[in-house]
């Protein structure tokens, strides 16, 4: 189906549904939280019964977005929903919920590696964020963009574009946010909340991770590491590390950053952030992961030294092949 037909089909399903479930991916980020909250408020305005249920808790500072207190943390206990709308869930199990297929499911994502597992799949890799996609959906439904909807969608897009600094920022994302600003979103307040409000623990984590920084000037590769104990001791989650890797990418002469994150004993998540023509998404896909052109990830197993060595080799080989 064409984009217009998909949006129309989703709109029709929403209109005919009485009880709606919203959920985002595990380790939710600003895009999935902001978009989910915008939809939550939208559905309530439309007179629907709606629950926003995530398995993982909402990370700070997104706990301060309008309506964030309404998010239920835990497993689905009521299976009497007419539809389940999943945000950025690349596969059926990515939400962390069990038996999600018992519902009529709608999958909205902007990652091109997403599986087409739902009853309706809306995948748009050209979109800067799912918040941008849902803007089009709300426009189709012809519901007023009030302050709550506009603020949450603005936060979603601003978060995923790194305050409009990342390469996924487009004329469309700027146009959408200009509209949202005219309809209640305050760009200064949203930016202050997302990018200038850190907890003490977050700043401590920043220092610990940056203490592991190593830069190879000849290859343009930088790498940082995070043992699981860093998060455990500070009471933080992996989402709290997202902007650290972007900070390292900003170093002059660095073209790609490898972030080795321990998720369990012998298990590591490798995050990549690149610049220019280095395709992080392609590197990740070749090793069972995925993502965007300049932001992606995959997993490796083994002891730390071996994992770091393998990750460096994978990236170096990819860069050599590129040349």
Indicate the topology.
Elements: H1 3-16, E1 19-24, H2 30-45, E2 49-54, E3 72-73, E4 83-87, E5 105-109, E6 120-123, H3 130-141, H4 147-160, H5 171-182, H6 187-195, H7 200-210, E7 214-216, E8 221-226, H8 228-234, H9 242-249, E9 256-264, E10 267-274, H10 280-285, E11 290-291, E12 295-301, H11 304-322
Parallel strand pairs: 1-2, 1-4, 2-3, 4-5, 5-6, 8-9
Antiparallel strand pairs: 7-8, 9-10, 10-12, 11-12
Question: Explain this structure to me?
Answer:
This protein has 323 residues and is α/β, with parallel strands linked by helices. The protein folds into two domains: 3-195, Alpha-Beta Complex (inorganic pyrophosphatase (n-terminal core)); 200-322, Diaminopimelate Epimerase, Chain A, domain 1 (Roll). Helices cover 40% and strands 20% of the residues. The protein contains eleven helices and twelve strands. It has helices at residues 3-16, 30-45, 130-141, 147-160, 171-182, 187-195, 200-210, 228-234, 242-249, 280-285, 304-322; strands spanning 19-24, 49-54, 72-73, 83-87, 105-109, 120-123, 214-216, 221-226, 256-264, 267-274, 290-291, 295-301. A six-stranded parallel beta sheet has the order 3-2-1-4-5-6, with helices on one face. The chain is globular. The model has no long low-confidence stretch (mean pLDDT 94).
Nutshell version of this structure?
With 323 residues, the chain is α/β, with parallel strands linked by helices. Helices cover 40% and strands 20% of the residues.
Q: Which structural traits does this protein have?
A:
single chain; six-stranded mixed β-sheet; 323 residues; inorganic pyrophosphatase (n-terminal core); Diaminopimelate Epimerase, Chain A, domain 1; 2 domains; 40% helix; six-stranded parallel β-sheet; 12 strands; alpha/beta
